[in-house]
Design goal:
single chain; alpha+beta; PH-domain like; three-stranded antiparallel sheet; 5 helices; 25% strand
């Protein structure tokens, strides 16, 4: 009878260990794909910054943040926590990757975060590059009012 109890206890321990490792692997794979979690974590790190838009990398391990005052931010999954920082204008170098869907980024203030970041499309990569370089112009801002168009054509 004693051996049966020990076998059952051993089976329960093995089952609990299996479930725990599966849950840990799932959390590791999830990364920052959950934008709600990204908003909460970035807001916790920088409570006075208003988030305008988020763009996650293809693998979900990093998120680039466009802030309300046209500054940019960055979040990276560091397995047990999220590293968040604001990107100061002129403190980042951006080059297109060989795939055309990614960026090779050098953060001058945080070299530990340098790397290649692949996005789902080239459009997403170019949009993030514009945020980082401080040249982003929103769609409504691109259009000139009709009176300005005719004045621009006369010159």
């Amino acid at each position: 009878m004693g051996i049966i109890v020990w076998c059952v206890l051993f089976a329960i321990v093995i089952f609990v260990a299996f479930v725990a490792t599966r849950m840990a692997a799932q959390n590791k794979e999830d990364g920052l794909h959950d934008t709600g979690l990204a908003i909460i974590e970035f807001g916790r790190a920088f409570p006075n910054e208003a988030i305008r838009q988020l763009q996650a990398t293809e693998n979900g391990q990093a998120i680039f943040v466009r802030l309300h005052d046209n500054k940019a931010g960055f979040m990276r999954n560091m397995s047990r926590h999220f590293a968040c920082h604001l990107i100061e204008p002129g403190r980042v170098r951006v080059v297109s990757s060989t795939t055309g869907r990614g960026l090779v980024i050098d953060f001058l203030d945080a070299p530990s975060h340098n790397g290649d970041f692949e996005f789902a499309s080239a459009k997403e990569a170019s949009e993030v590059a514009l945020w980082l370089l401080g040249n982003y112009i929103a769609e409504p801002d691109r259009e000139l009012p009709p009176s300005n168009i005719s004045a621009a054509n006369k010159q």
